[in-house]
Design brief:
Oligomer: single chain
Low-confidence stretches: 470-476
CATH superfamily: Amino acid/polyamine transporter I
Distance between the termini: 10 Å
CATH class: Mainly Alpha
Shape: globular
Order of helices and strands: HHEEHHHHHHHHHHHHHHH
CATH architecture: Up-down Bundle
Largest sheet: 2 strands, antiparallel
CATH topology: Amino acid/polyamine transporter I
Number of helices: 17
Strand order of the largest sheet: 1-2
Radius of gyration: 21 Å
Helix content: 55-70%
Mean pLDDT: 86
Number of domains: 1
Length: 476
């Protein structure tokens, strides 16, 4: 096989499926039900944007930030339908990385996996920073005490290291090391707390609803709505988390597509309700710049601290579920990449006792904790969005390619209105990507350049597809 063709060597879907669940030293355990998978995706998604990003998006669109959430949801829906088809067809841990490997080749799969590092590791760091903000809000309201800024913020934001952000990552790591089923049960409890807290917010905020706060509805026009849509797309990152559990689901072909679509529906309804309640209860100009914006809404709307204390307690507990589930997804993607030989073998080693990739989990957690403790939130969120949009675009293309190259492959779910739906998915992803600012693009392109260096220095030569074989080695 010539050099350039080796860059696009593919791994057959049948081989990916056959390897499912197997790692070095042991196998992953199939223990997750449809409910747990759905709540895993809800846990990874719900709260990321509403608890943290609303205060940054409202100044861009005004009250029309509600439509920005809808725009981001539509963008996510096209990609969710493609994810649902591929998750039901290739139910493995690698998510969009594995889907790209089976359809577009190794180089694209590597780039996609490199983007997923941006999506998962960086987004969980950003959410951990938001967790610290709500913890401080709770302590301030309850006792007047605040964690000193020097240990509650990263360099550049008035601090030296963000200890609360590091703490929540360590809590999630402890749960993940106990096992997948234990993590899923803990997440289920936290998701119900999260939904209850957000419904509580809506009830209180709607009592202070003033229609005058919605006028003018779109003071910054369509450009503002789309710019805010690109930013709040960060709040939909995570609906694909169920696809990273493909090798630990009890009935992956049936349950993964349903979990992905159900989770997106649940979070969209809640996001729109909460955004409407927030901009209706407080002038949108006053939401600007607050990373604990919902607590600020309740405190202002009621002239009392007790509702915002409840919200802050709920947010501290609930955002933990985001950290837990997204951290889980990151480890499983690295597990798949390691099994393919593209990164070191340590990431695929499975603990025989707990049946989880323990060393992988510890290494990822240390990296994420350092990122959360030392990097400001805003740039993290934007960089995450662009990496995710790229990965989503790849998945949409992958659906089209797999339909043509493997038309007879068993599919538990088929994307409706094919090929229009995945084409629109690509178009919407590209549209939101170009709406992100120049600095974000510089970070993204720099990240991609580093990824290519890593691939050619390590993955290209150590890939299992580079080994002389008679089966998949010359595929594609």
């Amino acid at each position: 096989m010539s050099g350039w063709r080796q860059l696009f060597r593919t791994k057959p879907a049948e081989e990916l499926i056959a390897e499912g669940g197997h790692g070095e030293g042991g196998d992953l355990r199939r223990s997750m039900s449809l409910t747990q998978l759905t709540l895993f995706s809800v846990g990874a998604t719900l709260g990321t944007g509403i608890f943290v990003i609303l205060g940054e998006a409202a100044p861009l669109a005004g009250p029309a930030v509600i439509l920005s959430f809808v725009l981001a949801a539509v963008t996510a829906l096209f990609s969710a339908l493609s994810y649902a088809e591929l998750a039901g067809t290739i139910p493995v841990s690698g998510s969009s990385y594995s889907y790209a490997y089976a359809t577009l080749g190794e180089l694209v799969a590597w780039v996609c996996g490199w983007c997923l590092l941006l999506e998962y590791a960086v987004s969980v760091s950003a959410v951990a920073v938001g967790w610290g903000q709500y913890l401080n809000e709770f302590l301030r309201q309850l006792s007047g005490f605040s964690i000193p800024e020097v240990i509650a913020g990263p360099p550049g934001s008035g601090g030296v290291v963000n200890i609360p952000a590091i703490t929540v990552v360590l809590i999630a790591t402890f749960l993940l090391l106990r096992g997948a089923s234990e993590s899923a049960r803990a997440n289920t409890v936290m998701v119900f707390i999260k939904i209850g807290v957000l419904l509580f917010f809506c009830v209180i905020a709607f009592t202070a609803f003033d229609s005058g706060n919605l006028t003018p509805f779109a003071p910054l026009g369509a450009a503002g709505i789309s710019a805010a849509g690109a930013k709040v797309f960060f709040s939909y990152i995570g609906f694909d988390a169920a696809s990273t559990a493909g090798e630990e689901a009890k009935n992956p072909r049936r349950d993964l597509p349903l979990a992905i679509l159900l989770s997106l529906l649940i979070v969209t309804v809640i996001y729109v309700l909460v955004a409407l309640a927030a901009v209706g209860a407080m002038p949108w100009q006053e939401l600007a710049g607050s990373e604990a914006s919902l607590a600020k809404v309740l405190e202002t709307a009621t002239n009392s601290t007790w509702p915002s204390i409840i919200l802050s307690v709920g947010a501290v507990v609930a955002i933990t579920s985001v950290v837990l589930t997204v951290l889980y997804g990151q480890t499983r993607i690295l597990f798949a990449m390691s099994r393919d030989g593209l990164i070191p073998k340590i990431f695929q080693k499975v603990s025989p006792r707990r049946q989880v990739p323990a060393a992988n989990t510890i290494l990822v957690s240390v990296f994420v904790a350092l990122l959360a403790g030392l990097v400001p939130l805003g740039r993290l969120a934007d960089a995450t969005s662009i990496g995710t949009l790229f990965a989503f675009a790849v998945v949409n293309v992958g659906v089209i390619v797999l339909r043509r190259t493997k038309p007879g492959l068993s599919r538990a779910f088929r994307t409706p209105f094919f090929p229009v739906t995945p084409i629109l998915g690509v178009a919407f992803c590209l549209f939101l990507m170009v709406r992100l600012d120049r600095a974000t693009w510089v970070v993204f392109l720099g990240w991609m350049a580093a990824g290519l260096v890593a691939y050619f220095a390590y993955g290209f030569r150590r890939s299992r597809l580079a080994e002389p074989r008679t089966s998949a080695g010359e595929a594609g």
